[in-house]
Design brief:
65% helix; 8 helices; 2% strand
Length: 228
């Protein structure tokens, strides 16, 4: 929004002495806001960029610990750590210090994108392995399993191990149908858990930043100059 006027005595403080229009920076410009690049009404451009970086992190974590190493615990440990990193980066990239609610908005958006991406990718890999299971097994391990492709083959593999069969029974899994329901139920739970862990992690650095003293506009200008 701009205000224009040829004479400063008529136009008021919104016009500089040369008569040039002055941009109305809005309420966020009261402190450390008038010089911030990429500022939106709700999100800063830096938060959107951080979300894209978080998407890349999610892909890396899901592939590393869902396919290569395949240790479920590492996926759940990585989720809040990824949230901490991306929540800090969202506001650091935006040079955002105030108002405090914008810190939370930036971090929450980047954390939500990261966490949801990680959760959906990890669950997708799990479902892919289960529904693509053809029952193949090397001859040295007993040969081909007699089963229908999909959850039935995976279920037969699991119940051949006594400990796994007992663990499934404790969860109420006693046949293929109950196992299929169990897979989808736990997949939904994992999506919520991984997204929640990442989101909580992202909000932690935002909260810390909110209570730290905000730098002056001159200090932010120096950061912009150094980055540029």
């Amino acid at each position: 929004m701009t205000f224009e006027g040829p004479r400063t005595e008529e136009a008021g403080p919104q016009v500089d002495p040369t008569g040039a229009p002055v941009e109305d920076a809005g309420p966020d410009a009261e402190h450390t806001g008038s010089i911030r690049p990429g500022e939106g009404r709700v999100l800063d451009r830096g938060a959107i960029y951080a979300a894209m970086v978080g998407l890349g992190m999610a892909v890396t974590i899901a592939i590393s610990f869902g396919l290569v190493v395949a240790i479920q615990m590492l996926v759940f440990v990585s989720a809040p750590l990824a949230g901490l990193t991306i929540g800090w980066y969202a506001n650091h990239k935006s040079l955002r210090w105030r108002p405090r609610w914008r810190l939370s908005t930036n971090a929450a958006f980047a954390g939500l994108v990261t966490g949801l991406s990680l959760a959906l990718l990890y669950v997708a890999f799990r479902l892919l392995f289960i529904y693509a299971d053809s029952g193949y097994r090397p001859e040295t391990m007993g040969g081909q399993i007699d089963c229908a492709n999909g959850p039935e083959c995976t279920y037969v593999r699991l119940i051949e191990d006594d400990e796994r069969r007992e663990a499934l029974a404790e969860e109420g899994v006693t046949d293929v149908d109950s196992y299929t329901s169990f897979v989808w139920r736990t997949s939904g739970e994992w999506v919520l858990q991984l997204t929640g862990f990442t989101l909580i992690g992202a909000l932690v650095p935002a909260g810390i930043r909110a209570w730290r003293p905000a730098p002056s506009d001159e200090e932010i200008e120096a950061e912009i100059a150094a980055a540029g």
